[in-house]
Amino acid sequence: MTDEKKVVSIEERIPRLREARRKKANRRFIFYLSFLLFLIAIVVYLQSPLSYIRQIMVEGNEFVPEEKIVEASQLSTTTSIWAFRVENIEAAIEKIPEIQSVKVVRQLPHDLEISVIEHKKIAYVDRGESLSPLLESGATLKKVSKSKYQGDAPILIDFSADEVLALLVDELQALPTYLLSHISEIYYAPTESNPYQVHLNMIDGFELLTSIRGFNEHLRVYPSIVSQLNQGEPGLIEIDHAGAVFNKFSNQEDSLDPDLEVYAEGEENQLNVEEDEQ
Questions:
Q1: What three-state secondary structure class fits 47?
Q2: Which residues belong to any copy of the POTRA domain (predicted)?
Q3: Against a cut of 0.85, is the pTM above it?
Q4: Domain range for 87
């Protein structure tokens, strides 16, 4: 009796096992079918306009037109948002001389954001009737009319030698912004004894005679020098490795002369030199 019950029990379980196996097989089939359909959907999506970039947004640009940046990226609204490597796009845009760095971000599902940091404008090169903005990278931008000059950077005058200009650019880059903003014009005024001599007109009315060699170091002591002077009595400050000397103009006509040869001898004062800590 016991053996008969065991046999009946096993026979009853066989259909249940078959049903469980069938359900498991169905679940496996549904999973593989769903996965296959998912892959097909991805392929269709990537090949269809649904994956195209809808909008390319550019931010951070001041000197470089948005159109030039987008053109350098070689992307358009007919490009799939997944059809490129971000690193390659960034490298392509960074080839633009005015661009310092780039960050490209996908704004899913359809938008692309390009954030650029441009090289800082540190001066304008005088071109006669116009000015060429000069960037810290050494690149010059499209000429602008002198009437549009807003005093946002010093004007470089008589710099015809590229080598000398490149040396000055290196020195200007190292200057703190607050010191750079104190310079109105820089004249290249070489002599036999100093082929790197420059003459600066400052916005506070003083003039400065120094050298491109050590320019950054010399300019850093300028605030401590002018603090010892009477702001109402302009003159010429000469700074070199030996120190600083102030020559007070004997009359107003002696000032603002870039030729450096007609200064009347005025009162001369040796000044204390201390580098500004800012």
A1: helix
A2: 51-119
A3: no
A4: 50-118
Amino acid letter, residue 220: R
Question: Beta strands of the chain (E only): which ranges?
Answer: 55-59, 99-107, 111-118, 121-126, 130-135, 144-145, 155-157, 183-188, 197-202, 207-211, 235-240, 243-248, 268-271
208 in the same domain as 190: yes
DSSP classification of residue 189: -
Give the pLDDT means over successive 10-residue stretches in the chain (278 positions): 52 68 79 83 75 92 92 92 92 93 92 94 92 90 88 92 91 91 94 93 92 92 87 85 82 48 43 53
Based on the fold, state whether residues 181 and 78 are members of the same structural domain: no
Pairing state of beta strands 99-107 and 130-135? unpaired
Length of the chain: 278
Q: Which of 86, 118, 150 is the endpoint of a domain?
A: 118
Q: How do the residues of the chain divide into helix, strand and coil, expressed in percent and rounded to 5?
A: 35, 25, 40
**Tens-digit pLDDT profile for residues 67-102:** 999 999 999 998 988 889 999 999 999 999 889 999
Query: Cα–Cα distance between 239 and 208 in angstroms, integer?
Result: 7
70 occurs within a structural domain: yes
- Confirm if 257 and 263 have CB atoms less than 8 A apart: yes
